[in-house]
Amino acid sequence: xxxxxxxxxDLAPFELLTETADQPVYDLPTRLRDVxxxxxxxxxxxxxxxxxxxxxxxxxxxxxxxxxxxxxxxNSRADRFVMGLLRAxxxxxxxxxxxxxxxxxxxxxxxxxxxxxAAEFAELRRRLxxxxxPRLVVVTAGGDIDVLHSGLVPGSVIVTSDVGARHLMHRxxxxxxxxxxxxxxxxxxxxxxxxxxGDGDGVILTEGGPTLxxxxxxxxxxxxLFLTLSPVLLGRSSSEPRPGLVDATAxxxxxxxxxxxxxxxxxxxxxxxxxxxxxxxxxxxxxxAVPPEAAPVAR
Length: 299
What we know:
single chain, alpha/beta, Dihydrofolate Reductase, subunit A, 24% helix
């Protein structure tokens, strides 16, 4: 495990604009605390989401663009630092299959996105008694994933249906688990989260995509949202829809998830917002009590 050296992390500190009191606090290494302008922590169990968005709400540019998040953020090192910090706090990083497909060559570890703080991230995980890196969990109903993706390292889990499990049989790298939750209609996000909770995963980070996050929000399973607001306008067209943070799920205004601002930080012209999601239902309902309107997981 890398050890922190005596040099500072080469990133100007964030400016703390506002933060509510009495938030959970982890024992951050000093250099992480100095750059982030304070501490961070999570109740356990919880699910938290992290996205970067343009000012006009675009969060993904589609599979034709590599590293779409980096492009939207303008390759912001501050955004990559926060991404690494949030990963360093998590037991598990939960993704939909589309996010895996749209991120060739990526690894969902803290050090991959911000290697300059690799030693500090590792030290934080040691203090939290976490494994060396968060476990990657990918959800796919039909098993339509790149089985040779570099992010699928030993210890990763593919949560799928019986159909998807048969499709992936004997095709994944050694050490990657395939976990079927039954026939496709039964593969709801409630069952996925409950399965991870059964593994002892108390702190789950999801990085999307928008379809998975929409399903998690509809299931009242997201406790917190971290949103990086990038100072750019990207627009949309009929031929290139460019989804927002929530896709394939629409809420009535009266029942839409309400957010409460927990903190705001600034780095240059980027804003880093943390919201509590009101009305979250956690722990998830047991599988036998999953509401019948729960949407099945997308392919």
